[in-house]
Structures are given as C-alpha cells and as structure tokens.
C-alpha cells in the first residue's frame, strides 16, 4: 500500500498505519474524515480483511462511510454504537495542549460528536499541522442556512467584543454555491491569525443563535500520532 507514495502521503500513511495498531478486536471505532483519515480507513480495512479483525466503524461523514464499506469495515450509526472505544481522525491544527482546529473538510460537527462519545481520540497528522497557537488555519463555524448572514454578523460582533486578532469571516463556497455540510448547513470560516483563549472562544461562538458547532476541539484529543516524510512516526 505504501509504495510510490508522494512524501506527504507517506507521512499521512505512516501515521495512519501506526494509529490503527491501537485498534483491538471487538472495538467500536469512530472513523474520521479527510485525506489522512482516509489512509486510516484503508489501513483498518486491510487489518479487517487480512487478520479477520472484528470491529464496527462509526463514520463521521458520507465520504468516510462510503470508503469504509468499500474496504470491508462493518459500518454502524452512532445511535447503534452509543459509545465508542476509540476515534481516529485528522486535524487542521494542533497545539502543545493537544487542542485542535478541525473542519477543513466541513465534517467537524459529526467529528466532534463522535470523538466526544469515545473513550479515546487519536489524531493522525503530518508535522505541518503542529502550531504554537491555534488560529492560522481558518476556524470553521457551522451555521444553519436560515438567516446565515445575520449569524455571520453576530459572529463578527462577538469577535470584535473579544478583541480577537483578525476578524474577517467568509461563507465557505463550493464553486458558485455555498458549501453544504452532511447536515444541510453552511460554514462560516473565521480568519483569526491567533486564538488567545480557545476554550472561551469555543463556548462563546456556540451560544450565538444559528451556530451549530465550531471547529475547536478542546480537551477532546488524547494522543497525536505524527508521521514524517522519511517514514518516522512520533506519538505525543
Ligand atoms: C474534516 C477535518 C479533517 O480531519 C481535517 O481537515 C484534516 O484533513 P486532511 O487530513 O485532509 O488534512 O477536520 O472536517
């Protein structure tokens, strides 16, 4: 599976491969979304097919559900699973406290629900996602379509009152149309540069009417597995 990969895919692949070593027979596993998580789903499928590993996977997006079925993983819903042993997912940024920004792929709502319902969350990544302070990556905020422009204005007003650096925001687009999440919602991306107090920002954003969930994952991630382009893997 690993031959002829580009350096960045090698990093993602080795992180994914190491992380699936933490999956044991009988586990219920949350399956993240994104290009790194897709490597994890393929690696897990390989263990299911080759070792007869019996697991149930709870996908965090329609994309991941489709891939999981293709590679032979038994897919169940979160309501069937109720609680999960482990979730493995990618991230857009992580800091030294293992707080994250997620949602670059627009799936952070399901990802946060699934990760929170898990005994353990492991993030798989390449080193480029490690930051001193969260915020260089645009922070996604999922809003319902009704009155989204009002929600966006309220978000901007809130950011101004918090004196957060950089307060521009933009509706995420998919070509000419607004991006639509698996839940039928839109995403407002916040360009903040640096988030001083991620816990406070997350709580405040989620209180704005129309906001469904933001992409800050605070105290949810337990471990980060970093894959390097030369094939080395670090676990922190
Ligand atoms: C999707 C996510 C992804 O995990 C995140 O965007 C990282 O993706 P990739 O592994 O493709 O860089 O949060 O909502």
Automatic annotation (TrEMBL):
Looking up CDD domains in the UniProt record yields: RPI_A
PANTHER family according to UniProt: RIBOSE-5-PHOSPHATE ISOMERASE
Looking at the UniProt record for this protein, which Gene Ontology cellular component terms does it annotate, in alphabetical order?
Answer: cytosol
- What pathway is this protein said to act in by its record? Carbohydrate degradation; pentose phosphate pathway; D-ribose 5-phosphate from D-ribulose 5-phosphate (non-oxidative stage): step 1/1
Q: Enumerate the Gene Ontology biological process terms.
A: D-ribose metabolic process; pentose-phosphate shunt, non-oxidative branch
Say which enzyme class the record assigns. isomerase
Name the Gene Ontology molecular function terms of this record.
ribose-5-phosphate isomerase activity
What's this chain's function? Catalyzes the reversible conversion of ribose-5-phosphate to ribulose 5-phosphate.
Q: Tell me what organism the protein belongs to.
A: Maritimibacter alkaliphilus HTCC2654
Record's Pfam families? Rib_5-P_isom_A (PF06026)
**Gene this protein is translated from:** rpiA
Which Gene3D superfamilies does UniProt cross-reference here? 3.30.70.260, 3.40.50.1360
State the UniProt keywords alphabetically: Isomerase
- Coiled-coil residue windows: none
Q: Tell me the protein's name.
A: Ribose-5-phosphate isomerase A
Family, as annotated: Belongs to the ribose 5-phosphate isomerase family.
Tell me how this protein assembles: Homodimer.
> Which catalysed reactions does the entry list for this protein?
aldehydo-D-ribose 5-phosphate = D-ribulose 5-phosphate
């Amino acid at each position: 599976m690993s031959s002829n990969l580009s350096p960045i895919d090698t990093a993602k692949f080795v992180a994914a491969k190491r992380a699936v070593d933490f999956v044991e027979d009988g586990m219920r596993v949350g399956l993240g979304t994104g290009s790194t998580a897709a490597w994890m789903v393929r690696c897990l499928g390989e263990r299911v097919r080759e070792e007869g590993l019996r697991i149930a996977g709870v996908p965090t997006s329609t994309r991941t559900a489709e891939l999981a079925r293709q590679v032979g993983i038994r897919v169940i819903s979160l309501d069937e699973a109720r609680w999960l042993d482990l979730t493995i997912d990618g991230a857009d940024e992580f800091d030294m406290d293992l707080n994250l920004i997620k949602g670059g792929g627009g799936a952070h709502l399901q990802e946060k629900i699934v990760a929170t319902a898990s005994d353990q969350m492991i993030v798989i990544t390449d080193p480029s996602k490690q930051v001193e302070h969260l915020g260089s990556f645009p922070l996604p905020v999922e809003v319902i379509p009704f009155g989204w422009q009002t929600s966006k204005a309220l978000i901007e007003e809130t950011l101004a009152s918090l004196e957060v650096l950089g307060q521009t925001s933009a509706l995420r687009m998919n070509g000419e149309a607004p991006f639509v999440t698996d839940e039928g919602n839109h995403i407002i991306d916040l360009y903040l540069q640096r988030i001083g107090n991620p816990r406070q920002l997350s709580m405040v954003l989620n209180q704005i009417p129309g906001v469904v969930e933001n992409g800050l994952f605070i105290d949810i991630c337990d471990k980060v597995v970093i894959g390097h382009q030369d094939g080395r893997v670090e676990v922190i």
